[in-house]
Amino acid sequence: MPHTDAPSFELLPGADRSPVILHVPHSARHIPPAVRSGIVLDDATLERELDHITDAHTDRLAEAAAGLARVAPWRFVNRASRLVVDPERFPDEREEMLSVGMGAVYTRTTHRELLRPADTDPAPLIDRYFRPYAQAMADAVADRLAATGRAVVIDVHSYPSAALPYELHGEGPRPPICLGTDPFHTPPELLAAAERAFASGDETGLDSPFSGTYVPLEFYGKDARVGALMVEIRRDTYMTEPGGPAGPGLTRLASALAALVDAVPG
Questions:
Q1: 81: in domain
Q2: pLDDT tens sequence across 101-128
Q3: What is d(CA 266, CA 253) in angstroms, rounded to the nearest whole number?
């Protein structure tokens, strides 16, 4: 696959002394033409799928929070749609979402309809998009470790108010704020800081309907200096679903996210 499209991710620097990286993997809708040609949906159906699958406005949320924080965090933002590759999936058989055609390279939609031919070879997309993204994110974490002695990845996501057919665990609670944790990388004090930061505006829940955190694989389960927490925001709290404009809730949530950044344990 030719490497003619623009970089698919961007690292936006924060303060040298900040250990925090706000990771925004699913906010973009951009699909390069070479990738679009492998998707079987017509243009109108693809736009509807992007409405459902995109964590709309989470890049704006992270940007606003970074501007409000006393010590500006770093931001790592995916500029390509997760329909190109999903950088948060395992790129192999460890990924449970393979069971619904949504591994690192999706072959099914949110409604379990055909997105790509089932026999699509994921390797070109993995090599072109997934591996460079993963390496750049690992480098960003390593840089924070070298500069501050630790790194804290805060994953910024959103999710629909009603479960979509692709969700494997959609029957559980859907609180305004879902905090995803990892037993190794989410220390209790980081989770407590998040619960305090969001307590003034929204009810928080734990690991439902989505669980876990993102940590680059070279650190995952190995380096406790890397902390991680996933913040999943229910979309009806800040935008018109699906895929519509943001509302006033975005400003309130940005303030809460900034409070979490500022409260990251020292």
A1: no
A2: 899 999 999 999 999 998 999 999 999 9
A3: 23
pTM of the model: 0.95
Domain that holds residue 203: 9-76+131-263
- Sign, Cα dihedral of 15, 185, 169, 40: positive
Gap between the Cα atoms of 123 and 116, Å rounded: 14
Give the residue from 28, 52, 55 showing the smallest Cα distance to 41.
Answer: 52
Instruction: For residue 116, count CB atoms less than 10 angstroms from its CB and return exposed for 0-12, middle for 13-18, buried for 19 or more.
Output: buried
**Cα distances (angstroms) measured from residue 16 to each of 21, 76, 77:** 12, 15, 18
> Alpha-carbon distance 171 to 180, whole Å?
16
pLDDT of 197 higher than 70: yes
What b-and-e string marks burial along 195-233, b requiring 16 or more CB atoms within 10 Å of the CB?
Answer: eebbeeebebbebbbbbbbbbbeebeeebebbbbbbbbb
- Domain of residue 197, CATH code: 3.40.630.40
Residue 214 — pLDDT band, cuts 50, 70, 90?
very high
pLDDT in tens, 50-80: 999 999 999 999 999 999 999 999 999 999 9
Q: What is the CA radius of gyration of the chain?
A: 18
Which pLDDT value is given to residue 4?
Answer: 47
CB 261 within 8 A of CB 22: yes
The DSSP bridge pattern shows strands 177-180 and 226-234 to be: antiparallel
Assess if residue 241 is contained within a domain.
Answer: yes
d(CA 76, CA 66): 12
Q: pLDDT category, 200, cuts 50, 70, 90?
A: confident
227 forms bridges with which residues in the sheet? Answer: 152
